[in-house]
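Teaching assistant's notes for section 4

Start the section by putting this record on the projector. Ask students to predict, before seeing the second block, whether Purple acid phosphatase will look compact or extended. Collect guesses on the board.
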Amino acid sequence: MDCFYKQISIFLRLNLVFCLNLVSSFAALQRFEHPAKADGSLSFLVIGDWGREGFYNQSEVALQMGRIGQQLDIDFVVSTGDNFYDDGLKGVNDPAFQESFTKIYTSKSLQKPWYSVLGNHDYRGDAKAQLNPILRKIDSRWLCLRSFVLNTEIAEFFFVDTTPFVDMYFIDPEDHIYDWRGIYPRQSYLINLLKDLELALRESNANWKIVVGHHAIRSVSHHGDTPELIDQLLPMLEANDVDFYMNGHDHCLEHINCFDSRIQYLTSGAGSKAWRGDDKKHNHCAVHYFHDGQGFMSVQLNRTDASLVFYDVFGERRYHWNASRQLHSVM
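Reveal the predicted structure now:
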């Protein structure tokens, strides 16, 4: 069976490469602007895999996010997907939107924009409901698109719809029904997405390039690495000097980097239900930190320095990492 999946995956990738040469026109990713602070700095929180109407410690994590958000005077929140469990939203009027979002993240510091992508669980419901601007009338913080670019002056964020890359959801969906409206034909969707992303990355002169997706590229937790992203997305990120790849999907906190790449892989998928003890304990890359409990991540940036912290469900700092880099030259 594994051999069958591998053959199908290779077939799809070969066809994708062939079709990339045939597609000559594409639309740019939608762009949003969010200015940095007056001093040129930026701070934000990253949370994923959270929407459970407050259960599985979601409310406790939200409380600590509010406390840290106030300390850091955050500018916004990044959501790495699987926003509503178990099967996304049923529609724009689904009470789960308010029960799992509006009524949970009530701290004053969290009344900032939430920039979100879809996860695989979101695709099991009405995926288009989360993309509908009607939700912004219910809660003005909410902004969710399949893929888009966020410019913050010192950093550009490239939000990527990773679920359609994963072969398993199409080949063997088990008992799940996915909402693929807007995705079929899948091959064309992925072709256009990759071309749009490559253009946006290539033209970016941001000091920091940050890509956000739901699925991990590198992980030592339950789901592990995502081969389709390693094959199709990772080469593009490396060729365009991406600094951070942030994701959810695995219900943990992780910092990984590989010896042959500058990219830092950061998993923040511990917004509610976590998987205690569910880790593979090995990876050919360097695992700097792994926490199999609930929590979230904070990031602070200026033009040359980055600081990230992982917090647990009690708001305790579990891991701190700093990075510096030279300014990008603008031609």
